[in-house]
Amino acid sequence: MLKNNLRVLCPSTLAPVSFSDVVDIAAASGFGGISLWYSLYDEARKSGLSDEELKAMANQKNVQIPMIEAVTQWLTGDLDAANAEMDRLFKAGRALGATSACTVFLGPVIPKMEETVERFGLACDRARSYGIALALEFLPWSGIPDLATAWEIVRRADRSNGGILLDSWHWYRSGPDEKLLRAIPGDKILCLQLNDAPEQAEENAMLETMHRRLLLGEGDIDLTALLTLLEEIGFQGPVAMEVFNKELKEKPAADAGKLLGESLRSVLDA
To answer: Where do the structural domains in the chain lie, given as residue ranges?
Structure first.
């Protein structure tokens, strides 16, 4: 299942490391790409490395950078603040070859749907000028809590470079809607983030998702069903390991990367 999709390591799952370390760990652990948190890029640039040098590091290890993270002010900030954040991220992403940007809303309630759709459309238009697509991620505790809400925003905004980022933890905790996912064109799912979770949810969803996600197969998410469904609808985007786990972050980053790579292969190559 999804054997040919680009396999991506999310650096946020590791103990703090440099850009070059993430690239090395990804390559050594069987990943063909990394997602790029802007903070990691910013640290590398402040250390004196140029965009060309960063890109050369990744190219030397055959590591792609398909996504930059994360656009957070597209809806909550005023337009000037939102545009400044987006320009900063999109410029960095374009420089290193990213084609999409993770886009989230962290507040508990969105404005009226009409305003939300309009702002997402404006964000997509801005991203297009950089050659970037916006992958809207839903978060169960937020004002965009599930696939249905995210898809309504993406569908109504109707931008060719607007789509969805599907995270298996958020999918599971928000109540999987297989019928809806099957109705969404595969090319509108821009990225898949994989992790696992126990059947019983914790009272504090934010704490659980940030510290106690599980490696694949250690929980109760039916990952086989999800991957099969995505393959059936024609999903061809990157598959990223994003396992926020306190114990994993306490391991040496290279060891954690190896575990993440093994975990991903145990599912995709089964």
So the answer is: 7-268
Q: Which one, of 247, 242, 246, 245, lies nearest residue 264 by Cα?
A: 242
Read off the pLDDT of each residue in 193-214 and give the average, rounded to a whole number: 95
SS (H, E, C) 181-227: HHHCCHHHEEEEEECECCCCCCCCHHHHHHHECECCCCCCCCHHHHH
Length of the chain: 270
CA angle (187, 31, 235) in 5-degree steps: 15
33 pLDDT above the threshold of 90: yes
User: Amino acid identity of 139?
Assistant: L
Architecture per CATH, 7-268: Alpha-Beta Barrel (3.20)
| pLDDT tens-digit readout, 116-173 | 999 999 999 999 999 999 999 999 999 999 999 999 999 999 999 999 999 999 999 9
- Full DSSP string of 35-69: EEEHHHHHHHHHTT--HHHHHHHHHHTT-EEEEEE
E strand spans, 57-161: 64-71, 100-103, 133-137
Q: What is the identity of the amino acid at 200?
A: Q
What Cα–Cα distance (Å) separates residue 134 from each residue in 59, 98, 127? 24, 11, 7
What is the C-alpha to C-alpha distance for residues 64 and 227, in angstroms, rounded to an integer? 22
| CB neighbour list of residue 197: distance below 8 Å, 6 or more residues apart | 168, 169, 172, 173, 208, 213, 214, 219, 220, 221
Q: Which two tokens stand for residue 102?
A: 């993770």
This prediction's pTM: 0.97
- Residue in 121, 132, 124, 135 with CA at minimum distance from that of residue 187: 135
The gap between the terminal CA atoms of the chain, to the nearest Å, is 8
How far apart are alpha carbons 155 and 162 in whole angstroms?
8
